[in-house]
Write a structure and sequence with these properties.
Layout (H helix, E strand, L loop, with lengths): L1 E8 L8 E9 L11 E3 L11 H8 L4 E8 L5 E5 L10 E5 L31 H4 L5 E13 L3 E10 L13 E6 L2 E2 L31 E3 L15 E3 L2 E6 L6 E10 L6 E6 L4 E3 L8 E4 L6 E4 L5 E9 L6 E9 L7 E4 L2 E4 L5 E8 L7 E10 L6 E2 L4 E8 L6 E5 L3 E5 L4 E8 L3 E9 L12 E6 L7 E5 L10 E8 L5 E3 L4 E7 L4
Parallel strand pairs: 17-25, 18-26, 27-34, 28-35
Antiparallel strand pairs: 1-2, 3-5, 4-7, 5-6, 6-15, 7-14, 8-12, 8-13, 8-15, 8-16, 9-10, 9-14, 11-12, 17-19, 19-23, 20-22, 20-24, 21-23, 24-26, 27-29, 29-32, 30-31, 30-33, 33-35
Length: 512
Amino acid sequence: MLFSSLKGLKILLGTILVGLLGGAVPVAAQDDTQPGLTIYNAEDGWEPLYNYTYWGQKLAGENVSSSFFEGNCGLNCGNFYGGSDIIGFDQGLIISTGKVKDIAGPNDQTGKSTDFWKGSTSIDPFLAKISGPGVRHTDVEWLEFNFVPKYNTVSLDYVFASEAYNELVNQPNNDVFGIFINGEPASLVPGTNVPVGINTVNGGNPIGTNASHPEWFINNEQGENGANLNTQMDGLTRVMTLTAFVNAGENNKIRIAIADVGDGMLDSSVFIKFGSLRSFPSVQPGPGKISFARVGTPFEIDEKDGVVQDIIVKRLGGGQGTVSVDVYASGTAILDKDFRLEPQTLTFTEGETEKIVKIIVINDTEDEREELFTLKLVNPTGGAVIEGQSEILFKLIDEPEDHRYRIGLMSAAYTVKESDKVVRLPVWGDYPSNVWYCTCNETAVAGQDYVAKSGRLFFSEDSVDPTIEIPIIDDDVPEGTETFKVKLYNPSTRAALVAPYEAIVTIIDDDE
């Protein structure tokens, strides 16, 4: 095969590898002129290039923001540079069952390894989904972080490598690796549901015998037709790109995990390309499952507020074709007398994943105090099924005006600069009472321009009035002025919202 040969100057450990990209040449045996990987790990200090926050920021790419990041890293995690002609991309994150600096070439040892856990074993619940129940793991390493994608699909570029190639190919209890999106394995052999590993991507044992997906494998073992890449790893995959469906605009979780199996020798590693966690829109296969988005206690509505309440209905697990569902109401509160529904049939077109049904309260002159009604999803069409939260209970409150507590925002408009990184909205209220709040996109997008927030605020004699704090995402992207909405809703029994109970927040892009 052909590789671009990076001709440059090796500089002492701890400095940056600088090189010039040359033309494509046939792969030859290693020599001292080949460039190598520059690898940083805990030996070089945790700052500024070796820490969880840095990794989260560097992995997040187009239309993705990252937040909470954790792991159990030591000498087995690090950054690498200069990998274009070796790994297939220039720089990224390494996680290994051994010491990451041992990954650098040349491949002059048949099984260079580090057994950190000295025979201690455990069962990692995530990796057990791949290796199978009961298989015990050692040298388990993992990293995990939350991310917010703009769209419903993400992709990530990676390479798996191991010293167990080729002698342990097609043997039981090989090292196990996985990238998990929201708990499910996502690092699969392209076009299959098979997790990437030593026994699923290889050139056979011996080479050419009983190979599995050899089109994705590069042999780097010492001997004929091998050891051409400047790394200790005896074999590695070509660059693979996983794709997975996720929840757009919400926190999702990615976990990268790897472990030895059987013993702590013959280390395996995974390389993750910086900036390759990208988000893009796509239609998820299948007609989908329909449910209410809200789950929880009865939803209280005060008749005298003349409320128009938006109830979200989601289509999950599929977006193909046109499907519909009816919204059926029953209870002591009567449809078209105490409230109206608009619409009563929700139709999702191809790719649509969210619809809204409006509850419009009719404020009459009758003293009814408290009535109940239930909304239920029925009659799905187009192959869709109803699954999850299919019913919601509502309380319709009709309290006399002088019996109610008042709750409201201090202002209907707030302005914040990106560099301020947070906007604060004070809320006032009579006690004892409580109210729910949430954020809604306008021209600003949650996860891209600000962090979506929702929750419940309480007012009591012994507490100060609460403040809603919304983090603002300060990026380097020129965006102009954008807005989002913060609103109060669903006040507690005998409480009423007083205007303003919605506010527009304007974000000023002050990037220079």
